[in-house]
Amino acid sequence: MIPVEDLPQGAVRRDGKWTVANPDGRPRAVSSRCRHQFADLSEGSIDAHGCLVCPWHGARYDLDSGAMVEGPKGFLGYVGKTPGYTQLVKAYTAVLRLRRAPVRRNGDAWEVAR
Fold it and tell me: Which fold has domain 2-101?
C-alpha cells in the first residue's frame, strides 16, 4: 500500500511488483519492468499527456491499456536515434503490453488489488 500523501498527482511509486502512477488523481498500476530493456518503471515519470515514461530510454506507455505508445530512444547506454530498432521494439510490445491491476483507496492509502 502507498499512503495517499505519498502519491500526489504526477507521482510514480512502487508497490511490491507494481508501479503505481497518478497522472490525474486516479492512480493506475502496471507491471514494473519496461518491455524494452527491463528498466524499473517506478523510477520513471509522467509526461504532459499522462503517459508513463521509462527512465532509461524514454519509451512511453499508456496507463489504461499498458501499450507502448512511443518506442525507446536508445539502446544499452546509448540515448539517441535508433531508426528501425525503435519500430521493432514497438511492434513486439503491441503483443507484450504491461500488465495492469486495479488500484483502490483503502482508508489513507492506495492499494493494488492483487
Answer: Rieske Iron-sulfur Protein (2.102.10)
